[in-house]
């Protein structure tokens, strides 16, 4: 049989340069058409690639059922689980989950089935399931807070749900309406919140883990045809204070967490597994985490799985700056805590606050050598990591190429800017310090 003649695409061909965008738009058209213009590679609003919008004929395929939280089917447990005591090994193990979980099945031929709220328990997967072989898995990290005013709150949960859609798009998992995912998260929190975060535990939280995995049992390397969305609530120990600050070990030449054109900006499992070897070795050496660098220039990306911030005095202008890596290269995660800190800083710190010197808020590429120079020249003011897990964690030391960079913490256990930013976030999350009604605090009406 003669080979089929094909004209290879050229680098000038628009369809050749946006293969990932094409794939995302096509998948959304089939699985979540209402989200076609809201899910981008960065998680921000974007338009459909113009060649898809103008050249592709309207789809004649019947629309498959979408994810619909209003159709959730509830089966409540007959074997309630025990809530761990505060300070117990069970609480600290990060293995104990609440009584119930959310599940929703999807297939390429039937679309989304009705979600279920059901007793927490193990999943059933074929040994050939796509997620076990090809890292077709993504997740979110959120928290349910018991406020000091007695209310249950989520923190900006719409941002997590929007980002999860972006992550599923990136690894060929089905699309969905983020608002429907949020409703399912709220349903689980409302169901289990009263028992697992009782009102006599203000200031505590449960960790929320929405996850999507490809369950397709076909072993071929292809876009999955079956997937499972699930949401669980897990007990975590209360956030402790790092009295001596976080110590970071700058990554070595044989390490790379993310790269331009990759998937470092998405919250996919493939970002985490390869980092665990280096993380374990860093801890053996007495460091809490890796400060991930990229390229020969030593571009700073993230601290462990958290965004990295530095406050320094600009060498040219002499002005104070709060600096963190930008999102343009798609190397770092658009963290919810990151975004919130930047918005708070721009709104409250650029004109000074209660004796603090005003500063500029900057998102741009910078390197470990910039930090070395700032430390040597006395321009380094403070540094901290930020994320859902670490919250706002002050950094006291960075080890790079055999030398320790000592990072000031003017308030003893934290820098002044990290301290005020952390307190603002705490007030919103736990409904205290005049922040009870802040729009970022999503109040969950718990079921009795």
Automatic annotation (TrEMBL):
Recorded catalytic activity of this chain's protein: L-leucine + 2-oxoglutarate = 4-methyl-2-oxopentanoate + L-glutamate; L-valine + 2-oxoglutarate = 3-methyl-2-oxobutanoate + L-glutamate; L-isoleucine + 2-oxoglutarate = (S)-3-methyl-2-oxopentanoate + L-glutamate
Designated name of the protein: Branched-chain-amino-acid aminotransferase
Keyword Nucleus: no
Stretch list, region Disordered: 29-68
Family membership noted in the UniProt record: Belongs to the class-IV pyridoxal-phosphate-dependent aminotransferase family.
Highest rank taxon of the organism: Eukaryota
Residue positions where N6-(pyridoxal phosphate)lysine is found in the record: 267
SUPFAM superfamilies: D-aminoacid aminotransferase-like PLP-dependent enzymes
Keywords associated with the record: Amino-acid biosynthesis, Aminotransferase, Branched-chain amino acid biosynthesis, Pyridoxal phosphate, Transferase
The protein's enzyme class: transferase
GO molecular function, one term: branched-chain-amino-acid transaminase activity
